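Sample entry was shown:

___
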Amino acid sequence: MITEKRSIRRRGIYLLPNLFTTGALFSGFYAITSAMSGHFETAAIAIFVAMILDGLDGRVARLTNTESEFGVQYDSLSDMVSFGVAPGLVMYLWAFFSLGKLGLFAAFVHTAGGALRLARFNTQVGTADKRYFQGLPSPAAAAVLAGFIWFCLDRGYNPESLSYIAVLLTMSTGLLMVSNFRYSSFKEIDLKGKVPFFVAISVMLGIAFIMAQPQTMLFLLFLAYAVSGPVITLIMRRRKRRMQAHKP
């Protein structure tokens, strides 16, 4: 009887981290249904909520020692919906609907890029450099599109006049996700260590500035992060060439 109980327990799943993953999945699903109802601002915000919950599930699992292979796979499926399908579909309904096949193709490029990015990430977890991501992370790619929609809605821009810009942006995020550009993972930052007082003040002011204009600041921040990948990769290649040139 004891052996049977132990085997049953092993087949279970950890509730706490998977609740956050389920919340992220629901936020992505809610973004899609909101866009279908014409509530695009709500859809954009829901994608950002999915980002926050997605960032918490892994940390909660590590802090509570509840990491599992099930959680890893469930998180990937949630990411595919929230950061692959949802942003592409929301962007299609907002700006691409009148473009026909071109809009459908652009939305699919982002969705396919998200699927390929997640598949590659899962196969390179044990071998990849922890300091960098290979390719633009799918949550950041989704944030670029959601931030763009939220920014344009806040400014009252007509989506039809921005449709080709939106196509270029959507296809770019899809291609950046499957690129070999390196993006900083920020994992080398020690959040537990002590920092100078002015750093704490700067962080507080930065958060306040973002909260004052989230539509603009979130879009600009994630757009800058998307651009940083090619910049970092080019700088690292130049340094490598210089080191090789100076070798005897």
